[in-house]
Amino acid sequence: MKKLPDNQIAFYQLQDGSINIEVFYAEENIWLTQKKMAVLFDTTPQNIT
Q1: Average pLDDT for residues 24-45, to the nearest whole number?
Q2: Would you list the domain boundaries of the chain?
Q3: Computed from CA positions of residues 44, 24, 10, 29, in that sequence, does the dihedral angle turn out positive or negative?
Q4: Residue-wise over 13-37: b if at least 16 C-beta within 10 A, else e?
């Protein structure tokens, strides 16, 4: 995968057309809340630790 320039994020659209995720970008890291990670991985927040 080609490296993206700094401060850019690639988003992928689902087959149903939905795109919705909030991320925090800090020092070359992307941070998601526990709830958003659960949505991303199609699981419950309790499974994300």
Answers
A1: 82
A2: 8-47
A3: negative
A4: eeeeeeeeeeeeeeeeeeeeeeebb
CA 14, 16, 38, 9 torsion-angle sign: positive
Question: Sign of the C-alpha dihedral, residues 27, 11, 23, 46?
Answer: negative
The percent of residues in the chain predicted with pLDDT above 90, rounded, is 10
The residue assigned the tokens 């699981």 is 43
Two tokens at 34? 């526990």
Phi and psi at 19, nearest 5°, equal: -140, 120
